[in-house]
Fold this protein.
Amino acid sequence: MSSYLVILIVIILLMLREKKVRPTRMWIIPILLIWITCTSILSSDKLTPKSFILYFICLIIGIGIGIWRGKLEKIRVNHERGIVTTQSSVAGVIVFLGILLLRLLAAKWGKEHAVISLTNALMFIPLGSVCARRYIIYMRYKQLMGWKNMDIKCFFRNTR
């Protein structure tokens, strides 16, 4: 339990610091989450239409939470250096911790009561949240950097 607490504290500290937005790298974590979610579902023995409906509902809830968290992000532009930075809000971190706690509680309850489809479905909430949040940040990044008016030479100069 103490290792979970240490990891949780590190995650909170990393979420609250200001980070540079790198559009080419921001899709790594969502792809890994998709892979983890798919392997977890495929390793499950019982895939029923009810479980797929539960997966879809949790994915929609996660996307809604991700859009909300993405709108809470503080995004700043440093015009001198040509970079965009983002910082999670305290409310966004609290929502993330709530999702994580819900998943841990369901996993503990699922071991005792064999509710595997619920624990698998709860993996779709962070997946939808992370993907939607990253998409919102990416769209705001494009808007702030003015990609519509940017030529290719300026783009390569700012990404070095």
Summary: The radius of gyration is 18 Å. Confidence is low (pLDDT under 50) at residues 148-156. Residues 37 and 43 are 10 Å apart (CA to CA). The first helix runs from residue 2 to 16.
